[in-house]
Design brief:
The chain is 35% helix and 15% strand. With 248 residues, it is an alpha/beta fold. The protein folds into three domains: 2-77, 3-Layer(bba) Sandwich (FAD/NAD(P)-binding domain); 95-194, no CATH class; 201-246, no CATH class. The strands form three sheets. It has a five-stranded mixed β-sheet, with helices on one face. A three-stranded antiparallel β-sheet has the order 5-6-7, with no helix packed on it. The chain has a two-stranded antiparallel sheet with strand order 9-10. Helix 2 (128-144) runs parallel beside helix 4. It is globular and about 60 Å long.
Length: 248
């Protein structure tokens, strides 16, 4: 079959490569690519990378922004998730607009009702579990009285300033919780609130190295580690892990 995969995140790219072994053609569409993009991906004879989809037609044809088109048997959406909180009443405490949960102080606390309500795990494009563990530690500390939040007015001002900075960059609201380049900055801030150390230096360097390897060898970056100059990071990690795993 001819398959069009919409979305070029980790799921979209992994699924595309997985099904390329059995599909007739795989066409990966990304809104991050240039509008004139339509190129064959290296390593596969039947995979193409395209710009965003312009329209789908009744006969099954998919037309991309660059004008190219394919007749698809399957259109697969790998476009991420939409935030939805149907269990919260519509009382204006928080709202979801263009996948932005607002207002939230540091992506966690709604100033109006903090600390009685909090959100763990909203940020996108992050290494999830270390960040979510820090968020959980912060929330637990606030609820137990060990950590103190700013006043409601201070939190509202911080949220307003944050959205102003995003608007100045031209970021749409749907990227509000997309941290990526600000992930470690956010984790350092949370660690400071929790009176504990932030991410280790080797973890930051290993993340950067792994991201580079993923770009260079997307087919096998999970299976092979050619660390070279980065092998010392593994040694540092193993020493840290050993300190937490001492046998009695």
């Amino acid at each position: 079959q001819v398959v069009v995969v919409i979305g070029c995140g980790p799921s979209g790219t992994d699924i595309s490569r997985d099904i390329a072994g059995v599909a007739k053609e795989v066409h990966l569409a990304s809104r991050w690519s240039l509008s004139a993009t339509s190129e064959k991906l290296p390593g596969h004879a039947n995979m193409w990378f395209h710009s965003e989809i312009d329209r789908a037609q009744e006969d099954g044809s998919v037309v991309f922004h660059d004008g190219s088109r394919v007749k698809a048997d399957v259109i697969m959406h790998c476009t991420g998730y939409k935030y939805n909180f149907p269990f919260l009443t519509n009382d204006a405490t928080v709202s979801v607009d263009d996948n932005c949960v607002d207002p939230l102080y540091k992506h966690v606390f709604p100033p109006q009702v903090a600390p009685r309500l909090s959100f763990i795990g909203l940020p996108l494009k992050v290494v999830p579990f270390p960040l979510f563990e820090l968020q959980s530690h912060w929330v637990a500390g606030v609820l137990s009285g060990r950590f103190k939040l700013p006043s409601k007015d201070e939190m509202v001002r911080d949220v307003t300033a944050f959205h102003s900075r995003l608007a100045a960059r031209g970021w749409p609201r749907r990227y509000t919780h997309r941290l990526r380049d600000r992930e470690f900055e956010n984790e350092d801030w949370l660690a400071e609130q929790c009176r504990r150390g932030g991410p280790e230096g080797w973890r930051r360097e290993m993340f950067d190295a792994a991201m580079q390897v993923m770009v260079e060898r997307p087919e096998n970056y999970r299976d092979e580690w050619d660390g070279g100059d980065y092998d010392h990071l593994l040694a540092q990690a193993n020493r840290d892990f050993a300190a937490h795993c001492q046998r009695p």
